Amino acid sequence: MTTYLVLKFVHIMGAAVLLGTGVGIAFFMLMAHLSGNTAVIAGVARIVVIADFIFTATAVVLQPLTGTLLANMVGYPILDGWIGLSIILYILTGAFWLPVVWMQMRMRDLAAAALQTGSPLPRDYHRLFWTWFAFGFPAFASVLGIFWLMTAKPPVSLW
Ligand code: HEM
Predict the structure, then answer these.
(1) Secondary structure class of 50 (helix, strand, coil)
(2) For residue 51, how many C-alpha atoms fall within 13 Å in the half-sphere facing its CB?
């Protein structure tokens, strides 16, 4: 029982870190962009990339591990039902999150280069920013969907 509760606690902390870091990063990046200040954008993008590597990446790895252990302990099937559907949404989230990490690194580098040369932010930066912005919506919706499935545990049949 104690192992189960510790695992569940770590799992829920992981979920909080995933959602919290995601929303926080989106907010700070958007605010930095709207400031129009190249130095602010370069600085925030640099910190955001570090935060994603420390917090999001750790939670991304831990979440399926703790989740699978929990499911095994309780006896839930992994590849069917609400867990199976959550895993599909989790893969979908990852498919949007991985390019986002790369885009943040590119935006960081472009802003730093513009700052150094005193030139305006290049067209590439703006294109990346709006793609990054658009990718956030499906990723966020999928994570909310997972939260709902994990909480409500609805009777879903996949196959
Ligand atoms: C990717 C593989 C995942 C698996 C296999 C998995 C599995 C599980 C299982 C079996 C439980 C139920 C524990 C119980 O009530 O006995 C659970 C609960 C929970 N999971 Fe996941 N999970 C995964 C990912 C996620 C993700 C990505 C999130 C959110 C970002 C999440 C959020 C939650 C929350 C909030 C609960 C607590 C629900 C409650 O106690 O009613 N899980 N998970």
Answers:
(1) helix
(2) 19
pLDDT tens digits, 91-147? 999 999 999 999 999 999 999 999 999 999 999 999 999 999 999 999 999 999 999
Best residue for ligand 1 mutational test, from 11, 72, 156 (most atoms within 8 Å of Cβ) = 11
Q: Are 29 and 104 in contact (CB under 8 A)?
A: yes
Ligand 1 lined by 80 (C-beta under 6 Å): no
Ligand 1 pocket residue status of 15, Cβ below 6 Å: yes
- Report the candidate in 36, 33, 156 with the shortest Cα–Cα distance to residue 89: 156
Ligand 1 contacts CB of residue 147 (under 6 A): yes
- 114, 125 Cβ separation under 8 angstroms: yes
**Dist. CA 119–CA 49, nearest whole Å:** 23
Average model confidence (pLDDT) across the chain: 97
